[in-house]
Amino acid sequence: MAYFESVSKIQYEGPTSKNALAFKFYNPEEIIGDRTMEEWLRFGVAYWHTFTYDGTDPFGHGNMIRPWNHLKGMELAKARVEAAFEFFEKLNAPFFCFHDVDIAPEGETLRETNKNLDEIVDMIEDYMKTSKTKLLWNTANMFTHPRFVHGAATSCNADVFAFSAAKVKKGLEVAKRLGAENYVFWGGREGYESLLNTDMGLEQDNLARFFQMAVDYAKEIGFSGQFLIEPKPKEPTKHQYDFDVATGIAFLKKYNLDPYFKFNIEANHATLAGHTFEHELRVARINGMLGSVDANQGDPLLGWDTDEFPTDLNATTLAMYEIIKNGGLGKGGLNFDAKVRRGSFEPEDLFRAHIAGMDSFAVGLKVAHKLIEDHVLDDFIANRYRSYNEGIGKEIIQGKADFKTLEEHVLDMKEFKNESGRVEELRALVNQYLLTAF
User: Fold this and answer.
1) pLDDT (tens digit, 9 = 90+) per residue, 27-86?
2) pTM score, two decimals?
3) Is the pLDDT of residue 437 over 90?
4) Residues designated as active site
5) CA angle, residues 343, 346, 352, in degrees to nearest 5
6) On the CB side of 316, how many CA atoms lie within 13 Å of its CA?
7) What CA–CA distance (Å, rounded) separates 354 from 362?
8) For the chain, how long is the longest CA-to-CA vector?
9) Does residue 152 contact residue 191 with C-beta atoms inside 8 Å?
10) Of 422, 437, 414, residue with least CA distance to 359
11) What ranges make up the beta strands (E) of 7-65?
12) How far apart are CA 225 and CA 332, in angstroms?
């Protein structure tokens, strides 16, 4: 059965195309620097938002028109797999991602849930034999079911901790079987509402124990994918332990887990933490821990995770600047953890939205590469910090200075000559590159 009969394979038609179902800027075969656009961007389709999201929000019932909506249970799960691989092929998507409960319904027991999961994984595995689309990452949903009301690895209930461990065990087995390039941990409810009833030390120790168990089991079964942590500051938990990249790095280093983990950075999560997207990417990059990206954007007028498809070209440019500086994303990619707006309820809107996001990052890639190639920001920054190339600045960098020598240097200094940071000029320059890139 064809689920998207009205859509043909999406082709690159160039910036002047008026075809809504065509790429204007994303040309997967175009060479940028030392690799193709497809190799740089490594786009992924999020199974949950694309195939399971029904449009429900706090004020209204689901309204999405989907050809599989009339089905239930395992029949629904199987139809979604069929629809997914048709979608991947027509979009020419290199990767996809999923939570365990996205692809198969839960049973009354974990044993029954695993049986359902195995049946759908069999089906996915068969489709992957003839599809170019690979599994970027999978993960376990440990936040939706009421059992996770107090968290998963940080739950006060040891039975829930054990249940969560069993889910991740199964998830790692599925990851190995399907050739996942990564495995993601999103904290979800790993945090607390109030310190009045929380043993924070125990919860964080248990979370570290949980991660170490995952590391050990991955080694035991020979899963070689990259482990990723996805930071988020709040929602659903008031205080989440993976608030942002810096908090995550501190946690990993405290428990000696940093050799095994990198970060999956979501744009909307960055802004919820009070950071820009590029800030979180930079913090991860300079610490050697930039692993993958959940590509979306939030709404600055709304204080929650709106998961919109990315269309802000300035944001995609600054993001790709960090990714190129990182040498790419390695095993990671740009997963569209994004959902169509509730008013975009037709099946074709799924393609329109992904095209918008893919084109936006393609623009970002080309502009960022040109900025780096022309040394625009590099030269400005190098000049701005040139005082560290000689004299007292060089002694500071070389570790030859101390408080006494620094005091001697400034004790009789009457003037300190600072120069303008010219941030407005630089922002205008980025805009100039954006407007002249095509």
Assistant:
1) 999 999 999 999 999 999 999 999 999 999 989 999 999 999 999 999 999 999 999 999
2) 0.97
3) no
4) 99, 102
5) 90
6) 24
7) 12
8) 83
9) no
10) 437
11) 11-12, 22-23, 31-32, 35-36, 43-46
12) 10
